[in-house]
Design goal:
The chain has 259 residues and is α+β, with helices and mostly antiparallel strands. The chain has two domains: 61 residues, no CATH class; 192 residues, Muramoyl-pentapeptide Carboxypeptidase, domain 2, CATH 3.30.1380.10. The chain contains seven helices and eleven strands. A four-stranded mixed beta sheet has the order 5-11-9-10, covered by helices on one side. Strands 7-6-8 form a three-stranded antiparallel beta sheet. A hairpin with a 5-residue loop joins strand 6 and strand 7. Helix 1 packs across helix 2 and helix 2 crosses helix 3. The longest helix has 22 residues. The model has no long low-confidence stretch (mean pLDDT 93).
């Protein structure tokens, strides 16, 4: 029985580490604290996890060259609480400053930047699943802009997670990626966490978001699907490019990367 319990603890620690980077360590500390203070483990974990998330990890991350993105900023905010709660909203100071500058530049157009997965708080090279990159603080996914049926710009998104609702239908596969055997290419459609809000892709506002990024000297590359690159008017921009078949589709979000 003890071996089974130990095995389950180990599995939970691995999962927490894979999906939050620091959750496994928090769980271990929780076990020690609850035993020493004779507190309920579940309450101790939740309390200590939130304390780490809000008060302990952000200043520690700065020592590793990462900063937490705003959570309650009206012009630059996460799609939902999922991203900050899982410590997936950390970037380099340079990227944070660039995003804040870009969000301020878009205020006049009534456009707000909504971010999705960024990076974990510590160490270059630590993978942020399920992404192939997002491991050095210099990458972040940004949501497209959408509008209501009445043509009004909205902060709402068509998927709970912000991923998986494509501008073009499921049958699209750039350069025949799916036919070439890259099965993961369409995988984001399983990561929506639920489809909500009947919205339309806002070509004009999304183009303005990308244009604002391109005006920042720090921008190295932006990934979107080739047909969207043309549709949004960036055919002649080398920094806007196709991500390749080894990654996943990018007609449900923007991938931004700085130098």
């Amino acid at each position: 029985m003890k071996l089974i319990k130990l095995f389950l603890h180990l599995i939970w620690i691995i999962l927490l580490t894979l999906f939050t980077q620091v959750g496994g360590v928090i769980w271990i500390v929780t076990q020690l604290l609850s035993k020493f203070l004779k507190w309920k483990k579940s309450y101790t974990f939740i309390t200590f996890y939130l304390v780490c998330n809000l008060l302990i990890i952000p200043p520690l991350a700065k020592q590793f060259g990462r900063e937490q993105l705003p959570i309650f900023n009206a012009n630059l905010k996460p799609r939902n609480a999922f991203y900050p709660l899982l410590f997936r909203n950390y970037v380099t100071p340079e990227l944070k400053k660039m995003l804040l500058n870009s969000s301020e530049a878009l205020i006049k157009d009534n456009i707000r930047i909504t971010y999705l997965d960024a990076n974990f708080p510590f160490y270059n090279g630590f993978p942020l699943l399920p992404h192939r990159s997002h491991n050095d603080g210099k990458k972040i996914d940004i949501s497209f802009s959408y509008k209501t049926k009445n043509g009004k710009i909205t902060d709402k998104k068509p998927a709970v997670s912000g991923y998986g609702i494509y501008v073009q239908d499921d049958n699209y596969s750039s350069n025949n990626c799916v036919e070439k055997g890259y099965w993961q290419y369409n995988f984001p459609k399983y990561l929506t966490l639920g489809k909500i809000n009947n919205l339309q892709f806002d070509t004009n506002s999304t183009a303005k978001i990308i244009s604002t990024f391109l005006k920042q000297t720090e921008t190295e590359k932006i990934f979107i699907e080739p047909y969207l690159k043309n549709k949004l008017g960036f055919s002649n921009y080398g920094k806007v490019r196709f991500q390749g078949c080894k990654a996943v589709r990018h007609d449900d979000h923007i991938h931004l990367q700085i130098k």
